[in-house]
Amino acid sequence: xxxxxxELKLAVTPRTFAKLAHDPLFxxxxxxxxxxxxxxxxxxxxxxxxxxxALRLRRERGGWVQTLKGGGSVEAGLHRRAELTHxxxxxxxxxxLLGEDDLGKRAVRAVRGTPLAPAFRVEVxxxxxxVTPAPGVTIEVSFDRxxxxxxxxxAPVCEIEFELKRGPASSLFELALAIAARYPVRLEHRSxxxxxxxxxxxxxxxxxxxxxxxIRRNMSASEAFRAVCITCxxxxxxxxxxxxxxxxxxxxxxxxxxxxxxxxxxDAFAPLAPPEMFxxxxxxxxxxxxxxxxxxxxxxxxxxxxxPVAQQFPGHRGLMALERASQRLREAANxxxxxxxxxxxxxxxLLELGGWLAAAPWCAAGSDKAQLAxxxxxxxxxxxxxxxxxxxxxxxxxxxGSASLPRLHxxxxxxxxxxxxxxxxxxxxxxxxxxxxxxALNELQDLLGAINDGACAPGLIEAASAAARGPLRPxxxxxxxxxxxxxxxDRRRALKHAWKVFRRCERFWR
Length: 510
Fold this sequence. Notes:
eight-stranded antiparallel β-barrel; 9 strands; 15 helices; single chain
């Protein structure tokens, strides 16, 4: 029989793990930890994983248990999965046990008689306890410490897993928040299976792009709001490990995109709720976005402004000195961004937002009229948001050809909000009608973003010049300054045409 698993994971350091294991919040250990060996099986082409399933055999209490997991969802760190469990006689998968349930049938069809072989294994010492943090709530807490092994590759496991046995899903976030208030923890977005397939080379870590079109026509305003926010948080959390490890700068860029979209979603739905319910969360999201901003500015400056200039003047000692100084400042900004995202305050923010979305308190807040608006079809609210955003963009874009850089900055924000709102609400309207304006907004957003990068460049040039060494700094600063000014002028000329295209677009929500 298929059961539903609802769980949340926190990654911790070994030192924090040891402290948490003796925290009175979880009670005394119940016996000695159990050694668990889990072997994950798949075909040579990983047919199960490619279809969103994982099949494992785990040795526990002297026997083998076969578990197939699949389907479900990940919602801001909360994993909901269907699982099909059977006891088996040996450490060999028995697909004959899977035929009676839909999940099992999908697995059998995926395999199609192809032999299964071990893909990787997980060995952990597990200490399991049961806690009741509130009346009517039961949560199973598992302290897992061990290793994932795939061939000669190894990855440590040091995490605390909360599985909901009874009560609302928001209880998992509340318990995690209580821990985060006292210990440094990090929300773990990935399952052990995902980490194992990654270690085995099946899943290649790469920056993850988010999706916008998750709203459906039959959704209420509340359902639409929750769907959009969860998608934004999933986008952020999927890129979080790459940001913290300091890998490809695109991880950081995608994390900032996720935060900007989340803030736009909060802005779009804020009129339906009491101000105090959204204001603090908007400020917190803005704070984290700004903490990641300097690193992104230096990434763009070094890669898109300074590097092309240096290629045109190879061997120029002044430019080489600026490059070295810029790289040092870039690395420092990226370290600060990694610390900010991994900090206790920002990890607590992710947990707080996840719990808030799971509980959905906005539905019962405010006036009767506001509560009815949350339950009404989202299309009516979407039309109001898009119309208001369009008017704001037109107002900010007057005389765009001669607008000052501060005015263009305000226009960029208005266009960005309208673009995100169009992406959120686009599926509610005919695609053919929405596409011209969404394409025009994409072009405008890219151009205004590039102009903003150009406007920020002089400050970065000054900072790099101050940190550089050598007699040719003024000459190098002048070269890159002229180059940036020319790029800025080109982009401003292109903006005039892009703005005309946007103004001619039909308002698809009418």
